[in-house]
Design a protein that fits this description.
heterodimer; A: mainly alpha; Arc Repressor Mutant, subunit A; 9 helices; globular; disordered C terminus; B: alpha+beta; Immunoglobulin-like; 2 domains; 3-stranded antiparallel sheet; elongated
């Protein structure tokens, strides 16, 4: 786990959280305002809902025993983003090492599960174009390695500066810059210009 | 300024990291070089598309559920795993497992190869088109296969809610010797049930999967 010093609460800062209070209360008070943010970030890292939910859950389970340490953190959000980042990278590495088996079943005695799929409200073409674009971007992101994907997400989307990421991820600025450069190159290759420029023209 | 000099500076331009003089120089180059201008415009468009990619809202009660599970004050929340049949669930498994349930179509035979005497996580993926409340999942482990944290226990069972979409169950297993039978997972819900069989092969060459 990374050290906490860059984010440590300044001496004398007042807090609604107290030592001596049950950890569960402090933990929930501290984390409740952050969970949706972590979920969004986790979704951007993983690209799907199930993995995002698991990632947030696993990170929170690891964080709970560190509640007293969390009380000292002044800027909790970037600190939590860093924890989630490490959890994400670890989970991808672990997944790469472990086999996966897809179990498929027809649910005997159940209604056809396909019936439960929601009807689309868009016209078919509109829906296809919108979901097609979204899917293309998600697919391209999946082709990045986890570090590249994380730096693109945290820098280009979430707006953390490279200097902030240097501290948060404990990674040298030069490494981050070249990682970001390679990620952008890869996305450029994976996402041809046409759909974007065509879209811009439509907007005008 | 040549095109090859500008590649990294295009990143800095995009990120607002150039001073006025550098920016003017890069912009002058873009003004006369359609190739570099196209690269820059593409980078701007890709970044805009990434920012437009909005995450879905978390499921209802997600915040309560994850906080509750993290602090183990499971009660009113809706835990994804709950032990049944009087079995005490080891913390290691609770923490290590993420379950969802899946329903798709054609049945098939599966096999995994595990290294002898080394804990390895087998991940079982289920896809469900709809959520399922209070399904029961039972596992029967073949001889010489252990679930980490459960000692020699061969039969395990949980009652669980299954969510819509892809769900992953992670089973940390150790193989202690040759196995004859399959690992059998049985999923039952509302009077119907389905059995999955997983063949476990032993790879004693010490090689990773």
């Amino acid at each position: 786990m990374p050290p906490v010093s860059p984010f440590r609460r300044t001496r004398g800062a007042t807090s609604q959280y107290r030592r001596g209070r049950p950890d569960a209360l402090n933990f929930e008070d501290l984390l409740r305002p952050q969970v949706e943010y972590l979920y969004r970030l986790a979704w951007r890292f993983t690209g799907n809902v199930a993995d995002a939910e698991d990632l947030v859950q696993d990170a929170l389970i690891k964080l709970y025993p560190r509640t007293q340490e969390l009380l000292e953190i002044e800027r909790l959000r970037p600190w939590l983003a860093r924890v989630l980042y490490h959890q994400y990278v670890d989970s991808v590495r672990q997944r790469a090492r472990s086999p996966i088996v897809e179990l498929v079943t027809d649910a005997e005695g159940e209604d056809n599960p396909l019936d439960a799929l929601p009807a689309t409200r868009d016209g078919p073409e509109e829906h296809a174009e919108r979901s097609g674009q979204r899917e293309r971007i998600l697919t391209a992101l999946r082709r990045l390695n986890p570090e590249q994907r994380a730096v693109v997400t945290m820098h280009d989307v979430e707006g953390y500066s490279l200097e902030e990421l240097e501290t948060m991820l404990e990674t040298p600025l030069g490494t981050l810059k070249s990682r970001l450069h390679r990620a952008r190159q890869r996305l450029r290759a994976l996402l041809p210009m046409e759909p974007f420029s065509a879209r811009e023209r439509v907007k005008q | 300024m040549e095109c090859r000099d500008i590649t990294l500076q295009l990143d800095d331009l995009l990120d607002g990291r150039l001073d006025a003089l550098q920016r003017k120089s890069v912009q002058e180059h873009l003004g006369r070089c359609p190739d570099c201008l196209s690269l820059h415009e593409h980078a701007v468009a890709v970044r805009a598309a990434l920012r437009e990619l909005s995450p879905p809202a978390p499921p209802p009660h997600f915040v309560d559920q994850v906080l509750s599970r993290a602090t183990r004050t499971v009660g009113s929340a809706n835990p994804r795993w709950r032990p049944v049949l009087g079995m005490a669930l080891a913390a290691s498994l609770v923490l290590g497992v993420a379950l969802g349930v899946f329903f798709a179509t054609q049945p098939s035979v599966h096999a995994v190869s595990l290294t002898l005497d080394r804990p390895e996580t087998v991940r079982l993926m289920f896809t469900s088109a709809k959520p399922l409340k209070a399904a029961t999942l039972s596992l029967a482990l073949p001889e010489n296969v252990e679930l980490v944290g459960y000692g020699g226990r061969r039969e395990l069972s949980w009652e669980t809610d299954l969510r819509k979409g892809g769900n992953l169950m992670q089973l940390p297993l150790i193989v202690r010797g040759a196995t004859k039978d399959d690992l059998v997972a049985n999923l039952s819900h509302g009077g119907s049930s389905k059995t999955f069989r997983l063949k476990i092969e032993v790879d004693n060459t010490g090689k990773d999967m």
